[in-house]
Amino acid sequence: MDFSSLVQELGTPANLVVNSEAELAKEVEREARERIGPKRGASYLYRKPVYPIDSSLFNGIVSSPAEVLRELGLATTFITASPFADIARHWAHVRYCATLASNQKRILALTKSGSDVVHHHKMVQSEQLGIGLALVVAKRILERKYPG
Q1: Helix 65-75 crosses helix 119-145 at what angle (to 10 degrees)?
Q2: What pTM does this model have?
Q3: Contacts of residue 45, Cβ cutoff 8 Å, sequence gap at least 6
Q4: What percentage of the chain reaches a pLDDT higher than 70?
């Protein structure tokens, strides 16, 4: 992939598929409570209940790989007073620039190169991209629920 097609692909908008059902919310809460366990104490328990989000708030969410990676970069830059903070914010773009793209159905998905990584890199990649995707979705939902 050459640089110009990479830049074009990063800016190509695609649909995000979001699932928020009551059963999924219950399963997430149950799993979280099981992982916390009685030994870790109540301080780790969620302070707010997990509940499904009205589907009208997340239908038709469109984003691009660049937006997801920008959100990831902003969320994971620890020291903002550093002279290298701007570089740190763009590290996600450099590291994951070829992992997301719009597929034939215009859905944001992993590319072939994004799917073809070894196990320990796949776990980190999943966590990192999950942060970026979650932030994009959360912002869109909040913008729709509380416009202005």
Answers
A1: 100
A2: 0.83
A3: 33, 36
A4: 90
